[in-house]
Amino acid sequence: AMNKEQLITVWKKFTENKDFMLNPDIKKVEMLAEGVLINEKNHGLKYCPCRLMTGDFKRDLLLACPCNFKIQKTWKENGECWCGLFVRK
After folding, report:
1. Which spans in 3-78 are helix H?
2. How far apart are CA 12 and CA 4, in angstroms?
3. Most buried in the list 23, 48, 60, 69, measured by CB within 10 Å?
4. Who contacts 9 (Cβ-Cβ below 8 Å, separation ≥6)?
5. What is this structure's pTM?
6. What's the pLDDT tens digit per position in 62-88?
7. What is the pLDDT of residues 46-59, one digit of tens each?
8. CA 58 distance to own-chain centroid
9. Closest Cα to residue 53, out of 62, 28, 84, 74?
10. Cα angle 42, 29, 78; round to 5
11. Residue 2 burial (CB < 10 Å; 0-12/13-18/19+)?
């Protein structure tokens, strides 16, 4: 299983050459990484810790991190993903 530091490294790679980056607040990023890893341990996938799962596997797949946050209102209005993990550069 992945640890917190490895997950954060994966997230950093995910932001390369994109118009967003990881939130510069590393404490927030670490807290979210812990939540995602707890969800993975308890539910089998790296679900976003900020959103409620429905129990419907297909619908809940949309909540796996990183989610498709660019279609969300919070991205359009605030330039960040649902939980503030990714922010506009």
Report:
1. 4-15, 26-43, 57-61, 73-78
2. 12
3. 48
4. none
5. 0.91
6. 999 999 999 999 999 999 999 999 999
7. 999 988 899 999 99
8. 18
9. 62
10. 110
11. middle
